[in-house]
Amino acid sequence: MRTQVAIIGSGPSGLLLGQLLATVGIETILLDRVSPEYILGRIRAGVLEDGAVRLLDQAGAGARLHAEGLIHDGFSLAFSGQDHRIDLHGLTGGKRVTVYGQTEVTRDLMAGRAQSGALSIYEAEAVTLHDFDRDAPYVTYQKDGQTHRIDCDFIAGCDGFHGVSRKSVPETALRTFEKIYPFGWLGLLAEVAPVSPELIYAHHPRGFALCSMRSMTRSRYYIQCSVDETVDAWSDERFWDELRRRLPAHHAEALRTAPSFEKSIAPLRSFVTEPMRFGRLFLVGDAAHIVPPTGAKGLNLAASDVHYLFEGLREQYRDGSGAGLEAYSAKALARIWKAERFSWWMTSVLHRFPTMGDFDQRMQEAELAYLAQSQAASTALAENYVGLPF
Ligand code: FAD
Ligand code: DHB
């Protein structure tokens, strides 16, 4: 088989890149090691920046998002028993975010790809990248007991943090930066109205909590937990009790509960790979970088990487110029490091660290009190939360 761009990974990065390339007639084959059903069973991000929404529109995948997504003009920072609203819309000259689950983004992109007739190969085993440091790269994989080969011009490594693409690059050719946090997030999804119409990011001496949603009848809640905990140790009842304890009293009283239908623990990590290009291989999204989820940036960063790579590939095929592809890594990394900073800062201010003493606790409270009082500080938070320009 031959294609122009081989895409490894059918998460939001790979699917969005494929759909954008299809709009300008660039052919792709997409490979994933698991099934579409498995991918659609993963519950992940929920908040989309305007830039990500624009790209989904450009890819022809925005219709359901506009019909069903929830526009949010602000959110609450809850601390010391009170809410402090961050007026995203007012502080950023009219910007807002859309609450629409990553699962639905993925479903919409998969439907678009199926409709376009582009080839997707799921449950591909032993995906291996070859010769991306030369002129004629190719990818091999196994399926149904046979080895297959895809020749291509370029490879897009969109296969997430644990994927094969980054691991295929010689260690000496890349530099990585990493911070692992000593806690995780336990997430729960339930068919029940959200406690509040806007998201609540709650600071509490017992640990961080986040009240989010997927719709006005489906809630997504998270609580900070220790890294060595397992989901089995958390009955629904224990989760709801702990969440209530970490919220201001009026929210705790208003909280409605229902049986969970998904519960999972995500570790928190900051990670960046430099550079993001190796010859004809480009790393995109979680394959190149991870942010802790506190700033809601993971999926949105994947979208901005896709934007830069799409523009580079379009220029290459339309004008024969490699300038955009040359600039890909530097452009993407400039935005990534700012989102890394914001996600690290949100995580540092809102979580309970095991080594924290009373002084550190007061520092967090002072930082939050300053945010609530100062328009300058709130504006800095808001402009990062709605997303820095591409
Ligand atoms: P992924 O979505 O990881 O997609 C990669 C794809 O590559 C997968 O389908 C995988 O099966 C495939 N793949 C992997 N290895 C191979 C291989 N060897 N061969 C072929 N295919 C392969 N972000 C937020 O903003 N908010 C959140 O609440 C949040 N929660 C998260 C919870 C978890 C558990 C995780 C892991 C991430 C979370 N994120 C969150 C981050 C966000 O979901 C990611 O940033 C986003 O999924 C990145 O998209 P991606 O397409 O780059 O990678
Ligand atoms: C969600 C996840 C986040 O990490 C976040 O900051 C906001 C919302 C969510 O899953 O809804």
Automatic annotation (TrEMBL):
Keywords: FAD, Flavoprotein, Monooxygenase, Oxidoreductase
Domain of life: Bacteria
Gene Ontology biological process terms from the UniProt entry: benzoate catabolic process
One Pfam family cited in the UniProt record for this chain: FAD_binding_3
PANTHER family given in the database record: P-HYDROXYBENZOATE HYDROXYLASE, TRK SYSTEM POTASSIUM UPTAKE PROTEIN
Name of the protein: 4-hydroxybenzoate 3-monooxygenase
FAD-binding domain: residues covered: 2-343
An example Gene Ontology molecular-function term: FAD binding
InterPro entries documented for this protein: FAD-bd, FAD/NAD-bd_sf, HB_mOase, RIFMO-like
Statement: the UniProt record of this protein carries the keyword Flavoprotein: yes
Taxonomic lineage: Bacteria, Pseudomonadati, Pseudomonadota, Alphaproteobacteria, Rhodospirillales
